[in-house]
Amino acid sequence: MATKYVYLFSEGNASMRNLLGGKGANLAEMIGLGMPVPFGFTVTTEACTRYYEDGERISPEIEAEIYEYIGKLEAHTGKKFGDLENPLLVSVRSGARASMPGMMDTILNLGLNDEVVESFAKKTNNPRFAYDSYRRFIQMYSDVVMEVGKKYFETLIDELKERKGVTLDTELTADDLKYLAEQFKAEYKAKIGEDFPSDPKQQLMGAIRAVFRSWNNDRAIYYRRMNDIPASWGTAVNVQMMVFGNTGDTSGTGVAFTRNPATGEKALFGEFLMNAQGEDVVAGVRTPQKIEQLKAVMPEAYDQFVEICGKLEAHYRDMQDMEFTIEEGKLYMLQTRSGKRTAAAALKIACDLVDEGMRSIEEAVLMVDPKQLDALLHPTFDAAAIKSAKPIGQGLAASPGAACGRVVFTAEDATQWAVERGEKVVLVRLETSPEDIEGMFHSQGILTVRGGMTSHAAVVARGMGACCVSGCGDIKIDEENKRFELGGQVFNEGDWISIDGSTGYIYGEAVNTVEAAISGDFERLMRWADSIRTLKVRTNADNPRDAAVAVKFGAEGIGLCRTEHMFFEEDRIPAVREMIVADNVEARKKALEKLLPMQRSDFEGIYMAMEERPVTIRFLDPPLHEFLPHKDEEIAALAKDMGLTFEQLKATVNGLHEFNPMMGHRGCRLTVTYPEIAQMQTRAVIEAAINVRQRTGLNIVPEIMIPLVGEVKELAYVKEFVDATARQVMEEMGVEIEYLVGTMIEIPRAALTADCVAKQAEFFSFGTNDLTQMTFGFSRDDAGKFLSAYYEKGIYESDPFARLDQTGVGKLVEMAADLGRKTRPNIKLGICGEHGGDPSSIDFCYKVGLDYVSCSPYRVPIARLAAAHAVLKNR
Amino acid sequence: MATKYVYLFSEGNASMRNLLGGKGANLAEMIGLGMPVPFGFTVTTEACTRYYEDGERISPEIEAEIYEYIGKLEAHTGKKFGDLENPLLVSVRSGARASMPGMMDTILNLGLNDEVVESFAKKTNNPRFAYDSYRRFIQMYSDVVMEVGKKYFETLIDELKERKGVTLDTELTADDLKYLAEQFKAEYKAKIGEDFPSDPKQQLMGAIRAVFRSWNNDRAIYYRRMNDIPASWGTAVNVQMMVFGNTGDTSGTGVAFTRNPATGEKALFGEFLMNAQGEDVVAGVRTPQKIEQLKAVMPEAYDQFVEICGKLEAHYRDMQDMEFTIEEGKLYMLQTRSGKRTAAAALKIACDLVDEGMRSIEEAVLMVDPKQLDALLHPTFDAAAIKSAKPIGQGLAASPGAACGRVVFTAEDATQWAVERGEKVVLVRLETSPEDIEGMFHSQGILTVRGGMTSHAAVVARGMGACCVSGCGDIKIDEENKRFELGGQVFNEGDWISIDGSTGYIYGEAVNTVEAAISGDFERLMRWADSIRTLKVRTNADNPRDAAVAVKFGAEGIGLCRTEHMFFEEDRIPAVREMIVADNVEARKKALEKLLPMQRSDFEGIYMAMEERPVTIRFLDPPLHEFLPHKDEEIAALAKDMGLTFEQLKATVNGLHEFNPMMGHRGCRLTVTYPEIAQMQTRAVIEAAINVRQRTGLNIVPEIMIPLVGEVKELAYVKEFVDATARQVMEEMGVEIEYLVGTMIEIPRAALTADCVAKQAEFFSFGTNDLTQMTFGFSRDDAGKFLSAYYEKGIYESDPFARLDQTGVGKLVEMAADLGRKTRPNIKLGICGEHGGDPSSIDFCYKVGLDYVSCSPYRVPIARLAAAHAVLKNR
Is the pTM of this model over 0.90? Predict the structure, then answer.
């Protein structure tokens, strides 16, 4: 049987969303519920897919099927395309499976031509309305279907208004508009080389093609990428009889929500305009009235609308977002859909619907999008305080949250002001570098002049959950003299500023902030999620403060504690550098001995914060050159500090240079070369665990993670040092403790040979950041340059660093998980890349049977909810 | 049943080589053949493996089994360990499955102690011989078993000689040697803190342990890596009754080959020393006599030996390398094995054995090691000429072959001298860079001051099959003034030098060279190999000259033609640079149009050279910054040439900078960004094919290869441009030709998703160089720094860039081959990484069912033979 590509509204229902799109399915459903909906038909999403498969053309069969349905629509409405007595006018609207508001094209008033408009003017007794509709149609059609460009038409309108000496469109008369329609057609002919199509069927085919085409316009592609919508879904096209809200004082149009989309409060919320079309409400030329006021204006239509709202909410069991038009006193429903809502509203509505008996707990959990929670997890500006503040500039919204503090210009100053004086500071830098870590950590927020969304400042700040505005190029910074200028104001060290990492706004004053907390509806929903999920949620945390935040947000352990961040701190980096320049084992061991007490006390702090929750500690990972300066002046200064000649230190720096540092001497390759580093780190891990146990009775079971393993013998080699050192420490201290040794799976070869690796590894943690880089063969630092072209050209639909690539990287993860379990059935499996906080990736982790995901502290609640979704969606 | 770890020689035979090692198995075989072999037993290779599994100790069961076999040996020989009347003395020798001459340890004269030596002196009536044996034993045991260090004993000998006023060891008397033995034991006690062991059983266990341990000494590890011998094999230990060639004038010792190992000539070849032990022959203190002379000295023993030689060769059906000792007129065989031979000898012996009816053709083919052929494939110095030449310096033997030419100092000069003047030149540089390609191509050889075996010069030269000596640090070069100094001589531009890329020697004069050719036995064997193999052999060649060499060596097509090498040539690079700095499509197209005729004529030349053999052309691969200079002076100069400001060009260079160029904007990523590059290259490929067809009637079917694909949509996107351009060219020229579009599989993700990729790709070529880098996660340029530690520590046994890692990378290759065939059953599969010329990798390619391998021209015969081996070995 041939595929059916067109459905009358009476042939569909809400369950056919994949085929008819959200809009089409819901229009059909409302028809089924007996609600007043202008009749029409839907061309399916499959027709859109066919359109692209056929090389961006509508095949003759589908065209014939559309013509057949025009006939059915004409029969149903008693109107006819091109008929002078009773012409059929239609709207043509996109409607994808998922709502993509405003991303694709719409054409209204289709079916008008020179003859039809004339009789339409007579029949409606409203020539101005008729000709206004006509010129709008020509303009919209030329723009959307033929891509002529709005500006040519706007110029013609402006010229006419000038000639007539008027300023508003509404001051133009019916004749003016008729004249404009003529001019528009002439413009069309000049640009396209053909007459404006007068055949409504031809118009319709053009409009349908335009909607299909708009599925792949830049903003739709971008929206899909941001919202994980696959390009393969396609859009449906809804062809619907026009109704007019702008025929006079008994007509109007509006939009409304069954509950407040900002707060979730249970009360009708919306607005309407009398004598207007839908686009006027959006355009904001006139101020709309509140929906309640409709009761006074048109009580009958209002009551009918309220009744429909109640029915729709009860029917869909969710807050609805509706569009309606009243034509000559008669109410028509043009759309209903589940309404977009703020995170706070989403939580309240989900909880209320459970309390109202409309939804089960599991359904309620599924109603809240995990990603939305992000908005609730960072400090925000005090609502009253921010009202009176005015931004003085804007950068990139690099890491969400609000921050307020005194300006400092160096990481050292940040640490000093914050730690010694107890001041809140905002660190302002041209750009940040790894040595700034400690100062960044002590800052409320970070503001940089250079660097994008993946700059050092942005990446580190997001990891820390710290607020960051990056790349504000308007700032004129003078780091030497500790001052900057923005928006005409000069800021010196110690001056107050505030920044908003969710909007990129910068305020030249102190604006109070409030901390995030999980309470009320939020807490209730998270408890429900916890009762459903099976995946554990851990956090990536390198210090007690982050660990404590994560525990507050529900973290059940640390999945990744990066020891190198500790190495960058001001009091440690000299010893680290001493270790690097050491030219023999003894000298290296001496330097490492200086680091030992510091590392040990770091670990003690983290164990205390996590109590008995598991802590995975990754051994030193970055290449050593990251710890040394690279500019000659800095090398000279450091050489002097270290008692070396410039040439000696320069030679060390040069010797450590790498062509591809990502693929260089780092991770366990360092420990294979210098096992004494692993010895020191093991000693710190085990001594700290024993100390905390003796001090508090807490039973700490550290998990030691060896990074960048590609071959089991590598791991075996390092593990031997780890085990020997651990045994020695336990003997020295006379205390036995448990500990695990495992590895990160971040090199493709480790995944491919995971059955061998599991012979040595007691756990795997998938390091999907590096695994993605190696599997795709591009470095995250460099890929920015070409990935944008890939998105534009539809080659990649989403950022593989944000959303796990299940086809390629995922295949390796699944293979490694299976191979690992084959060797060691109870092997512990987790993920600690940034994907650990991404809902779609968490769903994948659930499906391949990982034990836990680990993410930054501020994403822990998101992961908890996403883990619950994974259970429910995969049932 | 418990594993048997010890075998008497009478219990074994030649088929038990894996268990008994080569030496043990052959000793047992000779016993079986009734030949005179001193009796003994073999501790198996499995005992060695157990030794390592048990933490480098010999388990009590194995120790007990060894003691049991000592008893059996005593019973068989009638001698006893420690017995004063008839003491048993033994040699303890290693013997692995594959011959590893001199890599592991040996201990002779074991069983002597203070009492035994005294009675031994009496019994042999030769106290000097007895005490010399004793002091040698103490010295060897201390060194090998206890690692005391030879030097302490040598000092003692030197002191004694000085005190006695003698210079030769032979001048020391029996008493002197007895005194030395005492001193040696005292030294042993001082160093070890225990008495020298007098119990022969204890001595024996120490010696066996030492041999096991020596399996993992540095030189054995290195030898295994060079010869693809797995560490898991282990070594056996042979304990054999001592016989003495140094008891007087009726004793002697020698080594002999059944055929000449240098030429393959069928005649006994060897030498012997009367009144000597084996080590004396090797030490070279006395000059040995030719084996034929033994007939005169000891006719009976000689005749017996000749008879045994004949029997052994007939038995093993191969040229044998034997050791023998004559004790008091009685002949003993100590070893027989297949003799090592030169490549020329290997070919002659293989052919002769077929002609003599001793071997089948297939067996003969298997007797020649493909790797050995390398020595026959490069130009060599004329044998007469090189005799009188003296090297003036030595660098690294970076790329084999001999070269002779006049010195030039720049790539431009090389091209000019060679092309315009028709001179032979040797390019001498501090180091080479990609811009030097053309000059390198026109040089007979390349000599560099800096850079190792994987430097640019070395890698490129090997690819070209050009001779190269790299890293000769003794050269003082003054590039500016075009002169260098070496070995006290100064060389100016135009002076003659000669270099040998197989030895690293540099000659300050012209030494004639002779070209390699495949003829005689070589040709005969290659024809046999061709009749057996199923894998096709293609070559990597970027120009007609290399293509012609490869065809001469039997190449059946081009598997990889890198188009970027053509881009570096002097007349093209300006257009390439113009394309790079172009800031819009039109400007870029204009620059590309300049490249078009040059690329087209390149392809025409290659098609002509290859006739109708398939040619795979890879589109532009390297990142664009490789085509621009990086130093400010050079940028300034180029900017001037190009009519740009310094700042403009510097900005372009900076904009192209990448953190990890290996994983950056290159390969098909360039074509996705700039499809016009693929359009130009397609046009050149297709126009050239049509031109050649019209000119010569040759039917050219080009294979267009898109590099660095990681996702099928990438390939689909580029392929669309390729196909559209190809169609257009064929329409313009009015000729239809066939062509294929395929991809390199060099990104792990492409291998993992090969079923999808095969929907677009008509062939796969495995680019195992990059695939190895990405799968291991280390860059070839950087890995040198840490890989040596990996080899030392036994983590990797071989260089994964030289020998395909079958466990990890191979798994991806196999997976991709299977997935590719699933989608497209007749998909063409090949390999074009450097592994394509490596025999063990070729064996793997055969097993996973590839259609062809592709390697550099000079490795084509090696690949042909290896492909035949693959068939025979996998039957």
Answer: no
Going by C-beta distance under 8 Å and a sequence separation of 6 or more, which residues neighbour residue B633?
A: none
User: Does the structure show a pLDDT above 70 at A441?
Assistant: yes
A248 lies within 8 A of chain B by CB: no
With CA atoms as reference, the chain B residue closest to A785 would be B665
Considering only CB atoms, which chain B residues are within 8 Å of A789? 672-673
Contact B663 A756 (CB under 8 A): no
- CA A239 – CA A254 distance, rounded (Å): 20
Catalytic annotation present for A456: yes
CA separation for the pair B586, B331 (Å, rounded):
88
Contact of B822 with B506, CB cutoff 8 Å: no
Average pLDDT, chain A: 93
Q: What is the model's pLDDT at position A695?
A: 96
The interface residues of chain B toward chain A in range 745-764, judged by CB-CB distance below 8 A, are 746-749, 752-753, 756
Alpha-carbon dihedral angle through residues B678, B681, B687, B690, given to the nearest 10 degrees: -90
Hey, is B204 helix, strand or coil?
helix
pLDDT tens for residues A251-301?
999 999 999 988 899 999 999 999 888 767 655 557 788 999 999 999 999
Judge whether A59 is closer than 8 Å to chain B, CB to CB: no
Contact A12, A24 (CB under 8 A): yes
**Three-state SS at B429:** strand
Candidates A732, A669, A729; CA nearest to A702 is A729
- How many CB pairs (< 8 A) connect A and B? 170
- Catalytic machinery residues of B: 456, 832
CB A616 within 8 A of CB A558: yes
* Distance between CA atoms of residues B245 and B108, nearest Å: 13
Give the single-character DSSP code of B436.
Answer: G
Residue B188 and residue B175: Cα distance in Å, rounded?
A: 20
Choosing among A232, A657, A670, A774, which should be mutated to test the B contact, i.e. which has the most B CBs within 10 A?
A774
Residue spans of chain B under pLDDT 70 = 1, 279-285, 454
Are the CB atoms for A749 and A707 separated by under 8 Å? no
d(CA B683, CA B730): 9
Catalytic site residue from A378, A442, A456, A625: A456
* A830 contacts: CB under 8 Å, gap ≥ 6: A536, A538, A559, A616, A763, A764, A765, A766, A836, A850, A851, A852, A853, A854
Q: Do B660 and A779 make contact, defined as CB atoms within 8 angstroms?
A: yes
- pLDDT value for A433: 82
Write the single-letter amino acid at B158. Answer: D
Please tell me if residue B342 touches chain A, with a CB cutoff of 8 Å: no
Complex confidence, ipTM: 0.85
Token pair belonging to A497: 């500023």
DSSP state string for A8-61 = EGGG--GGGHHHHHHHHHHHHHHHHTT-----EEEE-HHHHHHHHHTTS---HH
Q: Which residue has the tokens 């310096």?
A: B393
Distance CA A510, CA A513 (A): 9
For chain B, what is the radius of gyration of the CA atoms? Answer: 32
Q: Are B324 and B254 within 8 A, CB to CB?
A: yes
Handedness of CA B752, B753, B755, B757 (dihedral sign): negative
DSSP A764: E
Long-range contacts of B584-593 (CB under 8 A, 24+ apart): B585/B676, B588/B674, B588/B676, B589/B676, B589/B680, B592/B676, B592/B677, B592/B679, B592/B680, B593/B680
Strand A615-618 relative to strand A702-706, pairing:
parallel
Handedness of CA A486, A488, A489, A493 (dihedral sign): positive
Count the Cβ atoms, other than its own, within 10 Å of residue A849. Answer: 13
B807 touches chain A (CB under 8 A): yes
